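Let's inspect one such protein example.
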Amino acid sequence: MYTLDRIILVAATTTTAMLVGLFYGWSVSVVPGLARLNNTEYLSAFQAMNRAILNPLFFLSFMGSVILLPLAAYLNYSQPTSLCFWLIVAGAVLYIFGTFGITMAKNVPLNEMLDKFNIATASEEAKAAKRALFEQPWNSLHHTRTVIGFIATVCMIVACLVKK
């Protein structure tokens, strides 16, 4: 039976998995590809991708999970509490405070710093310095939020599979 609590649970799981899939794909293809570029190419490409990702489809999964995960937990709450409920709570906490939290508190400020950098007028030394200031911290944070998001997604998938 398709009840509201199960529909929201599947929607929360789907939006979380979509975003984590994007992050995983970025980790295994974009990060290594960007690493091969020179400083000007790297900074230009990263600026372009950061600007392009700010779109409604990205925000659907990114913000959708923030809304749907707590809603799924609320709708799946019952006494006594079930394994399904606790898996949803774990997934929500991991995603909101891990994946979403790291993104908003750490990655976004780095993205904004990079976006303000004028590549066209910068010297080669300034480009190298900006890349050094940005690349390693951003990548470390990105890989961390990806792993946390993966664990959150596993929690949500298992929650979909266990009895309420």
About this structure: Helices lie at 4-35, 39-53, 56-75, 83-115, 124-161. The CA atoms of residues 70 and 92 lie 6 Å apart. Residues 4-161 form one domain. The radius of gyration is 19 Å.
